[in-house]
Structures are given as C-alpha cells and as structure tokens.
Amino acid sequence: MSIRLKKLELSGFKSFAKLARFDFARPITAIVGPNGSGKSNVAESIRWVLGEQSLKSIRGKRGEDLIFNGSASASRMSKASVALYFDNSSHQFPVEFDEVIISRRVYRDGKNEYLLNDSEVRLKDIIELLSNVGLGVSQHHIIGQGEADRVLYSSPKERQQAIEDALGLKIYQFKRQEAERKLYRTEENMRQAQALQKEIGPHLKHLERLVEKFKQVSETKIRLEKMLNDYLARSKAWLNAVSSDLYSKKKKPIEELARAEKKIKDLKDNLAGLKKIENEPKEVRESDSELADLRGHRTKIERDLGRLEGMLEAAEFADSSAEGEMISKEEVEALLSDIDNSLTSAMDTDVLEEVQGIIQEVISRISSFFSGPVLPENAKISKKDLFDKKKNLEEELARITEREKALVKKREELNLSFYESLQSQRLSENELFGLESEANDLRNTLRNFDIEQEKIKMREEEFSRELEEAKRHLGEDKINPGEAEAYSEPEREKAKKEIDRLKFRLEEAGGVDPAIVKEYEEIKARDEFFSRELDDLIKSAKSLREVSKELAEKIEHDFSGGVEKINKEFQRFFETMFGGGKAKLAIIRPEKQSKTEDEDLPEEMSSPEILKNEGGIDIDVSLPRKKIKGLDMLSGGERALTSIALLFAMSAVNPPPFLVLDETDAALDESNSRRYAEMLKSLSQTTQIITITHNRETMKQAGVLYGVTMGSDGISRMLSLKLSEAEEIAQ
Length: 731
What we know:
Elements: E1 4-11, E2 20-23, E3 28-32, H1 40-49, E4 79-87, E5 99-107, E6 112-116, E7 119-121, H2 123-131, E8 142-143, H3 150-153, H4 156-166, H5 170-278, H6 282-319, H7 329-347, H8 352-371, H9 383-474, H10 489-509, H11 514-578, E9 582-588, E10 591-594, E11 609-613, E12 616-622, H12 636-653, E13 658-662, H13 670-683, E14 688-692, H14 696-701, E15 704-710, E16 716-720, H15 723-730
Parallel strand pairs: 3-14, 3-15, 8-13, 13-14
Antiparallel strand pairs: 1-2, 1-4, 4-5, 5-6, 6-7, 9-12, 10-11, 15-16
Helix pairs in contact: 5-9, 5-10, 5-11, 6-8, 6-9, 7-8, 11-12, 12-13
Protein name: RecF/RecN/SMC N-terminal domain-containing protein
Coiled coil: 169-277, 383-410
Pfam families: SMC_N (PF02463)
C-alpha cells in the first residue's frame, strides 16, 4: 500500500460539536455505536471533505445544516470543518509534502473553503489531486448507509464513471475534458478571431489605400523637403555670391568716385581763387589807363611836333621855293617810321578807342604830309622858335616814350601773370570737366550697381518669402538650408519649376491625417495578431485534438483492460459470496444517429448527430441453482452481495487508499457475514478499510474499534473500547 490515511479530524460538523480525532493506524478500523449516536456522520464527513456537492447525499438541504446547530445545553457553532491526513512519503500525491492535509470548511453564510496543507485551493485542485490515487468524484469507495446496492441501481454511464474512478482513469478524463474545454475555447477563439479579422478587413483595406496615399504624400514631402532645402541653400549661396561680387565691383568705383569728388572739390576751391584774381585786375587796369593817357598825350605831342615840322618844312620850303616842289627821302622815311611806330603801338593795345585814335592820327599824318605845309599868311614865327619848340616837344615825347615803354613792360609782365592764371584756370576747368564727366560715369556705373543691388534685394525678399512659405508648408523644423554650391540661373529656374510641380502634387493629393497611419498600424497589428493567434490556435487545436485523441485511446485501452481485470476479480468474489454462479461487466458502446436523413442540405445546415445511448457498463449475473439473469430479479440480500462483490473487485484491481463502508453488512446473515468478513480481511492487505458496523464478524476483523455515543447535550463523543467490551456490545 503506497499511500495511507493517517487520521480524520472533525470540528463542528453535524453532531460533532467538539474536536474529534480518528486515527487509522490499522488496516481495518471499525466504528460502532448505537443508532442515532452520529457514527454515520463520520462517513458523511469523509464524503464531504473529499468534495461532495450534493447535500442530499449527506442528509442536508443547505450548507449550514452541516454545522452543529446547538442544543439545550450547548451553543451552536459558526462553522464546520473536516480534515483528512494522508501519509505521502511515497509522494503518490504529486506534491512536495510528506503529509498531505485536505480540509474543508463551511460557514453559516454558505461560504465553502478548501485547503491543502492550510493553503486555500479550488475544488478543482482537490478533485484532480484525489484523482491521482483513484479517489474520483463518483466516490465509489464510500458506501453510505442503505447504499450497498447503489452501484446496481446506477445508470450504465454512472457505473462507467465509478469504474473509471476505480481504475484511476479519472485523471486522464480530467485531462481529456480539460483538453476538450481548451479545444472548445480555442475553436471559439478561432471563430472570434476570424470574425474580427473579417470585420476589420474592409476597414484595413481602406486604411491601406489611405496609408499608401500618405506614403506617396510623405515621399513627395521628403523629396520636396530635400529639394527646398537644396534650393534655399543654393539660392542663399547665390545671393551671398552675387552680393559679395557686387560689393567687390562697387568697391573700386566708390573709391574712384570718392577720389574724383575730392579732386573736384579741390579744383572748385582752386577755381574759386582764380575767379577772384580775374575779377580784380586792378594793376592791369591802372597800367592800361596810364598807358592810354600817355599814348593820348604822345599822340598830341606827335601831332604838335608834326605841325611844327610842317611849319619848319614850310619855312624851309618858303626859303627854297626856287628849287621846286621836291620831297626829300629823309622826310618820307621819317613819315613811314612814324606810321610804323603808331601802328605797332595800336597792335600792342587792347583798348579799341586807343586803336581808333592811333589809326586816325596815322591817316591825319599821311594826309598832312601829302597836302604840304600851309602856313598862315601872317605867320611871323621864326625858325628858331620852331626848333626850340620842336626840341621841347621831342624831349617831352622822349620822356613819354620812355614812360610808355616802362608801362608796356610792366603791363606785359602783369599780362603774363594774368594769362598764366587764366591758362591755369582753363586747365583746371578742363580737368574739372573731365573729372565731373568721369564722376558722372562712375555715378552711372554705381546707379547700375544700385539697380543690381535693388534686384538682389528683391531676390532676398523673394528668398525670405520662399523660406517662410517653405516653413509653413513643411514645418519650421524641416527647413534647415545648409552649405551648398550656388545656383546658375538656368538651374534655379529648373529647380523652381520642379518644386512648384511637387507642391501642386501635394495640393492635388490633399491632406492625410497622420492619425490614419497610427490607426492603420494599430489595425494592421491587430490583424497580424489575429493571424498569429489563428496560426497558434490552429496549431494548439491540432495539438489538443492529438492530446484528446491520445487520452481517449489511453482511456479506452486502460478501461477495456481494467474491465477485464475487474471481471476476473468480480467472478472470484461473486463465486465466494454465492458459492458459484457467474458475474460479468459488459461494455456498452455509444450509438449515434442523425435527426434528418436529408443529404441535400448543406453541411452547416445539417442536423447534428445525437446518441441513441450514452454507452456505459452493464452487469450480467447468473446465480447458482437459480434461473435468474437480471438484476431486477435479485432479492435485497443478493443485490447487496453482488454490489459488495463488484466493489471489492474494483478495489482489488486498483486499490484505493481507503474504503468507507457504512453498514453495508447489515442485511447479511451469519454465513454471509463470515464470507464478508473474510473478504474484508483479504482486501485489507491492499486497502485501508473504515467500516461502520453492528456486525460481530466484521468487528472481529478490525484492529481498532471506535465507539461513538451521544449524551443529553446532543453532541457525539468518541469512546475507547476494548475488543472484549466491543464483542459484548455487539451481542
């Protein structure tokens, strides 16, 4: 025996108000006591702690019916608890504890608690744990009072469950059911995933089109961003280049214009000084005035001198009239000399009046010379007086001539200085004209440069507008023109056309909300998740089907083999009980049929298959010396013996940790009681037996006897009894 039940503790359960402890140190433990003492509550407590859910089977209607309800002398309890202690040193229970304690508590509010070694667990955990040692939910190992023939009255399906429990197949049934539940949930999840995938499919396609459009727009934006940055960078470089070039070109004309304007200013200042000299030729005017006076006086003297000479000639002519009217050579030469001097003097003056006076004087001299001297008739002037007067006039004329020469020389010197000033002024004026012409040319050049500067300024303003427009169009963080090579004008025009084309494409495409991309990613992720889930679920479903199939095959194989073994033991125990006869378990296979035979309906509309029967286990018995082949024809004692034989057979094939028998021997006569006791003794070699009995033969086989009694307070108590006292009580 690999696992052993060590003890049972009850507290507040039904009539056991106080803590009661049953130690199971021997293979067979018998619990005895008078009717109504509460000994059957021990069997029910074991059934309850192992997970019984039917309160009817433990004689209750509500959870609080299991709690001690008090009596006239004892107060009621608030909870009931039962604990089973197992020796798990062999670790047949798949836990790490050497002692396994399974407990159950119920409170008056109906709350139930299941504990494993004082840790709260689920009922499912308890059932799966017990299934590992053949203690299934059918609880075939606990036969309550009046239930000796329970297995015979069970349905074939219930018998099958009891046998599966006895064979230890319930754990595989649980695993198979769990696999099928998981498969069902998996298939349901697959349907849901497919439905959700189908639901989001059209929306996903719509989003794909929008996202594709968004990608095209994004690619266009990226290209536009690149081109705009390149365009702005190269435009900026071009502006910098032309501005720098224009500055370089303007620098020299500006400097030259500054120099020319300085020279012009200097020349104008110089010319202003020259004009002052021209406007104030005082010495020249004074010299010219004095010279004019001298020349006028000289002319008068010369006229007077000419008259005197004429008078002298006339006097001499009068004296020599006999000699004829001849004019000497000397006189002609003197006349010509005088004319020459007068004309030379006229050429040396700029005064028109003086020139006219000199010319008139010359004309008069010539006329006077050729007309001959005419003396007055009564002239009484002597030659001496004439010579003296002539001498005086000649001396005065000499003085005037000297003075005139001095004035002429002085005037020539003044004229030379003045003409030099005039010439310097003319040269300065010519230079000023040239400089002003050059300055005008420079100004025209600078005006052309200013026009170019204005064009550059317009281009700079255009660049600023393009920069702001680009920032508005793409976002300020996207526009960052760096260093680049300057554009040529054809390249700039070509790039600008391409940028305008990309802008037009963006405007034509329209805006796509970036949230669409996020939504698409989320929907796509969901779709991919559903696809992965479907793949995983398909694989999981396939694996679960394989597991379910393997478990079904194992259960079927082990069940068929176990039934054969049980049949051998059943036949042996049956022969022992009845002194012969035959007993056999027969497996009933489930049969299926369809509600409709219409094969033309589509598969999804066809009716599901139903079971003609659920299958199970049937019992065939044949009593010796009787022609009885049905369970319904057996008497009460025969049914009890048959049920006990089957129960012992199941326990012999796969011994459970313990059997609880509540007065299963009550209907047996003395001879059958002995047979029953012998079978208990034989079965106790592999299974602990806890029996509640009044049968003396049964008590003889027990190693430990527990007596249960009840006092006036309605509380069940345990009594220690010696075997001799137990035999007396039994008699």
